[in-house]
Amino acid sequence: MRLATFLCLAAVGVFLALPVICAEERPARPPAMSAEELQKVWEAEAKCVSAALKLSDDEASKVLKCYVSARKDYQEKVAALPRTQESFQQRRELGEKAGADLKKALVEAVGAEKAEKVIGLLGPFTMTSFRLDRMVADLLAFGLPKDKLEKAMAAVLEYNRDSGKVMAEAREAGSFEGVREKVQALMEGLNKELAKVLSEEQMASWKERQARPFGPRRSAE
């Protein structure tokens, strides 16, 4: 149990430090998103996944309902926990249960195959989901037209899926050697895709935003 907890903490530490632009002074951590902001982010994530998987309107509606409800319920439960290192295991257990419950709900809504693809892109209740939320919030802040937003979101979701796989493989192997380089390569690939959609000014802002520290967020009180 102690080894598993240590490896999870190590994974969190490695991931949250990636990818970061090297500088003597790192940008300040952004403020926590409000409940309303998180709701918009989760809705955007669900809609983008449904579009990427070409789900029917009925299936997309079910995915939206299942996903947003699950994320909101988890957020509320985590917010009620004390801000201590000891609560890490509790958050982990809550995340595992929330993930299992969401998977069950998605299987009932769209079938096992599509449910697996939805979960694969979103990576809910994992260390990657916190960064995904912030990335999506950053994209929404640009006020992009629908077609550009969908392309940008699709690229971010693919990055989230692939970086999540890297972290999962490292965690299972019990070694995070080479993880930093792999995630940095994925971020470089993501930025190349986003450069096709965003303006030079937006790309500069995007890279600056991605240099900020990331981590599990609680909505503003």
What does this structure look like?
The chain is mainly alpha-helical and 221 residues long. It has two domains: 33-125, no CATH class; 130-212. The protein has nine helices and no strands. Helix 7 (146-173) runs antiparallel to helix 8 (179-194). It starts with a helix and ends in an 11-residue tail after the last helix.
Keywords:
single chain; 221 residues; mainly alpha; 2 domains; 0% strand; globular; disordered C terminus
Largest sheet: none
**Poorly predicted residue ranges:** 12-17, 19-24, 216-221
Strand content: under 5%
Number of domains: 2
Instruction: Tally the helices.
Output: 9
Helix content: over 70%
Euclidean distance between termini CA atoms: 33 Å
Mean pLDDT: 85
Query: How many strands appear in the DSSP assignment?
Result: 0
* Helix-strand topology string: HHHHHHHHH
Determine Rg (CA atoms, Å): 17 Å
Shape: globular
Structural class determined from secondary elements: mainly alpha
